Amino acid sequence: MNIRKYLYFSYAYCRKYNFPQLYNKFLKEISSNISIDTTRNLLTELLLHCNKSVPYYAKLMNNLSIERIIYEKPEVYLSQLPILTKDIIRANFEQLKSTDLAQRKWYLNTSGGSTGEPIILIQDAEYNDKSTAISLLFSYLVGRELGEAEVRLWGSEKDVFDGTMGWKATFFNFLRNTTYMNAFQMTPEKMRDFLKLLNKKPPKLIVAYAQAIYELAKFAEDEKITLVPQKAIITSAGTLYAWMRQKIETVFQCKVFNRYGSREVSDIACEKPGEQGLWVAPWGNYIEIVDDDNNPVPAGVEGNILITSLTNFAMPLIRYKIGDRGILSPEYKSGQILQQVSGRNVDTFKTQSGTLIDGEYFTHLLYFKNWVHKFQIIQKSYLEITIKIIKSNSDYLAEELDDIVAKCKLMMGKDCVVNFEFVDRIPVNKSGKYRYTISEVI
């Protein structure tokens, strides 16, 4: 009997979380051939809710017969709605709220830093439950059941700032049988200790920032540290390039599975053993691919990814331009298949002592800053960081800049110079991709 899973789910039931029931439901459905109607029915339900309870969409839908959602394919109706961007969300924040928000257990979240333009969003308990269930399912599909050992090479700015982990997080990690290594503090000593841990008792699954696990693999290779074969690795929070995958799989002697998601819409898709592409969970999100003029592109052609979240009714994101590019497969295998995801690039910053710091650490310092419209953080040298910021209409406090400087120095050293440049434009690179962190230190 999996006692940790039993205890974790029992605690969740007591707290009235619904993700255990959803997880078991998804597990049951995944064993059969899930029809495309699963996503269509959820899409229909979302669109009817938007027409009734979300002022921004209700106004747009006045020009479209709502009956067509029911009698036609909902994805056809969906394609007639305008694309949602971060600027539109900022400008229509109040109108995008569901009118039944008071009856929902809602909370604020931000978008990620992959495009350098964080925004504030509203999510609720239902969204959280479904997102949690899908995340657990992705881990199960690559070989790890909840309660079995998992190690995460992940970012924890709270651990850096406070120096310790709270009792509640410690309790949850015990129930989930999850051990953390902080991707924001990868000193040579800590990397050696982490590799020793993996050699002593390989977990069922390693979940890691793509760039961080790649750097760890390079460190093990450079230091001639041989690892015993691991079971499986899921990478996320950054682009997994083919050369990164090859290095990671060679060093850790196991398969790497790429996972795609974001803070706005949670986990979207994940690779499955023995299959090509990333499988899109049919209960979570619906994907479209468009060109730079927002016209649909054929399956197999790269374009801009649009996401419609099927789980967030508190502040629906419909045809949301997430800022990434990808290719959608013409196949439907119990869900949409993303042949490829591209467009994210996280650089690792380096200190003189050899400590590696995932660029996500620095992007987190600019979350929930209303005065930041867009940013880019550049490591010029071991002791110099430049932060380029396009300001929004809001203004900043001097204390906020001081706090950012202090937290940069915490990682880079007290002699590090942090420069702020307030600019009107931050260009993309030659490939057309935006880099929100750049290290110029070789």
Description:
With 442 residues, the chain is an alpha/beta fold. It has two domains: 1-40 and 76-337, ANL, N-terminal domain (Rossmann fold); 348-439, 2-Layer Sandwich (GMP Synthetase, Chain A, domain 3). The protein is built from 15 helices and 19 strands. It has helices at 3-14, 19-30, 37-53, 55-61, 67-71, 74-78, 86-91, 125-141, 157-162, 167-176, 188-200, 210-222, 242-252, 360-364, 398-412; strands at 106-110, 120-124, 150-154, 178-182, 205-209, 232-236, 255-262, 266-271, 278-280, 285-290, 302-309, 320-332, 336-342, 348-350, 356-358, 372-381, 384-391, 417-422, 437-439. Strands 4-3-5-6-7-8-9-13-12-11-10 form an eleven-stranded mixed sheet. Strands 18-17-16-19 form a four-stranded mixed sheet. A two-stranded antiparallel ribbon has the order 1-2.
